[in-house]
Amino acid sequence: MTTIFGVPTQALFGQLLLGLINGSFYAILSLGLAIIFGLLNIINFAHGALYMMGAFVAWMLLTYFGLGYWWALGLAPLVVGVFGVILERVLIARLYKLDHLYGLLLTFGLALIIQGLFRNQYGVSGLPYAIPAELAGGQRLPFMFLPNYRAWVVVASLAVCIATWLVIEKTKLGAYLRAATENPTLVQAFGVNVPLFLTLTYGFGVALAGFAGVLAAPIYSVNPNMGADIIIVVFAVVVIGGMGSIIGSVITGFALGLVEGLTKVFYPEASSTVIFVIMVLVLLVKPAGLFGRTA
Amino acid sequence: MPEAAQKLSPAAATAPLLAVRGLQGWYGESHVLHGIDIDVRAGEVVTLLGRNGAGKTTTLRAIIGILGRRQGSITYEGVETIGMASRKIAKLGLGYVPEERGIFSSLSVQENLMLPPRVKPGGMTVAEIHTLFPNLKERAGSQGTKLSGGEQQMLAIGRILRTGAKTILLDEPTEGLAPVIVQQIGRTIQKLKTQGYTIVLVEQNFRFAQTLADRHFVIEQGRVVDQIPNADLDANIDKLHTYLGV
Questions:
Q1: What is the value of ipTM here, to two decimals?
Q2: Hey, is the C-beta of A288 within 8 angstroms of any chain B C-beta?
Q3: Does B96 touch chain A (CB under 8 A)?
Q4: How far, in Å, CA of A266 to CA of A271, rounded?
Q5: pTM, two decimal places
Q6: Regarding the domain delimited by A11-123+144-285, which CATH topology (the fold level of the hierarchy) does it fall under?
């Protein structure tokens, strides 16, 4: 059997793939958090709950309406996005003039309520969601077996992250977003409807979470706690990448997924804490994060 | 009714484009404007003179609607704007060039130039702005804040000229700039005046203001304490020195 540093290649690549999958979810989720934090100055603790909601909407679409995975991939982010728009208009918009802490507390409360409602209705044992037929099976590569669905998750996440980055960096819409992130008052004084931008940005950011939820549904079981489990790691990713840095959140997300995977191979005991150890080190050396700008 | 129209037209001709009446303004808890009264007629250049902290910048911020709390009356073309959101005030045709210039660091020079949406027809084309400020063309791809202070000022003015706003609120455009750049800015304001723009200029340097303005409003502790036509500026020079403490 081939080995690298005494580790079978099969295990190494297997864990790297797992890391890349986790990294895909970290990247999409931290991208949404970074956009929302950048423009709205809200630390959106409800992000994990909305990711879970995306997975549940996919499950409901299938169970109650017979609409399959591909429908869910389009519709679930839309449903979660509209839900986010309502949350922003009704609740979050009232907090912009207050300290960050209030936004964090509000969204934390919302996360608990949303999770509680789903837990009450569906329990915590988890609901199965099948891999779509088109993506069943896998490829036998020389060094490992690659399930098609996992490859798809990585590709789809990368595509969504790159598309989002292109819109923000290369379009007029993105220029408004970047300018309003820097100086919303001035952008407003130019005649731009900044409050509308804030609402749509929140909606888009949480729609990304909903999208990640649909991608996750066939891999992890659909479970009311799935968001709470991942969101703590995602916050660490955002802190390491730098609060509000778009590109930083994507690169850090994928990179930390890989680091986690590697740790599982070489020192499994540390795999669940390695990201937090890195977070502590980054905070000590570069408090603004790897890609963050110091004000 | 032609008679009614005839009766109205002389009044309309003399009515100010921008009328500020009894304007009060606050930064948080601190009350900074205590009843500002200013009239600006179409095509005029007026300056707001006064010491640091007198309330000149605050007055401009109140007019464009980005001061936290304001009371009194500000009408533009007869439309009351005191309760309006700043984005709606901008749409009436007012352009704002802030003191700190407000160039966005995450945008290129070109993106900064194109950022403010058009509010009225008849704004300058990008080519016209590039003729006015050739540096902006050469450095179109640079990061906005990599420009020199003078270039940033040109960009801050240029991007407003694109929007079609015909009234420009210009806050200390010459602050901290080299004399040759100050002259260039001065020539630009002069040119805009001949093209019919209305300009409200905040200035510390009244020698500079004198070359451009029709009238000067002197602001002290949040009130307009004097109004001096430009022609009388030299005769009032001692008084002005006292006001400005120079």
A1: 0.89
A2: no
A3: yes
A4: 9
A5: 0.86
A6: ABC transporter involved in vitamin B12 uptake, BtuC (1.10.3470)
